[in-house]
Amino acid sequence: MTRPRKPSNQELRTRKDLLLAASRLMKQGRTPTMDEVAAEALVSRATAYRHFPKIEALLVEAPLDAAVADPRTLFADDPSDDVEERVDRAEASLHEMIYQNEAQLRILLANSIRRDLTDDSIPARQNRRLPLIEAALAPARARLPEADYERLCAALALVFGVESMIVFRDVLGVDSDTARTVKSWAVRALVRAALQDSTSIAAE
């Protein structure tokens, strides 16, 4: 099976610029057109439509993008090197945002699912969870071999995000508080296991 093409940093930045531009215009109390968003983001109309084929999809996602905590801000006053605590804090922040914006996120997820799987010319989604995960893991980054670090990030990404909310809400039928308790246990267990593995390897 052919692996999907990984979007370039420039493509991700352009997508982010469009979201920020839309958010700024919406804060002015109006519903912008795609032309207005493109102009605000300093990109062409064609570029804007490549990333967001419909203005509705952009306007749904823009407020959600703004609601996600900035990793630098989240940990600005946290000198701790307790990685379990930091990862749990990051997940708690994203968990709160997701459950506060459930309706919009379901629309966003539905738009992503309906996307043409053969079209990998642009990023399908904005990767908001990985920057939070990486910021939380920063104090332990040097302790983890590259492969182990990437595996841990991938495992945590399964717990972070809207998809886990769908599982807890729709499949398991549990409420937000119960879901948060389970996810807190899961992310801590994953971090603990990864760090223990790295310690064991270093001692051999």
Topology:
Elements: H1 9-26, H2 34-41, H3 45-51, H4 55-67, H5 71-74, H6 83-100, H7 102-113, H8 129-137, H9 146-159, H10 162-172, H11 176-203
Helix pairs in contact: 1-2, 1-4, 2-3, 4-7, 6-8, 6-11, 9-11
Model description:
The protein contains eleven helices and no strands. It has 204 residues and is mostly helical. The chain has helices at 9-26, 34-41, 45-51, 55-67, 71-74, 83-100, 102-113, 129-137, 146-159, 162-172, 176-203. It comes from Candidatus Competibacter phosphatis. InterPro entries: Homeodomain-like_sf (IPR009057), HTH-type_TetR-like_transc_reg (IPR050109), HTH_TetR (IPR001647). Residues 33-52 bind DNA.
Give me the Rg, rounded: 19 Å
CA-CA gap between termini: 37 Å
Determine the fraction of residues in helical runs and give it as a percent range. 55-70%
Low-confidence stretches at least 5 residues in length (pLDDT < 50)?
none
Task: List the defining traits of the structure above.
Arc Repressor Mutant, subunit A, globular, single chain, 2 domains, 204 residues, mainly alpha
Give a quick rundown of the structure.
With 204 residues, the protein is mostly helical.
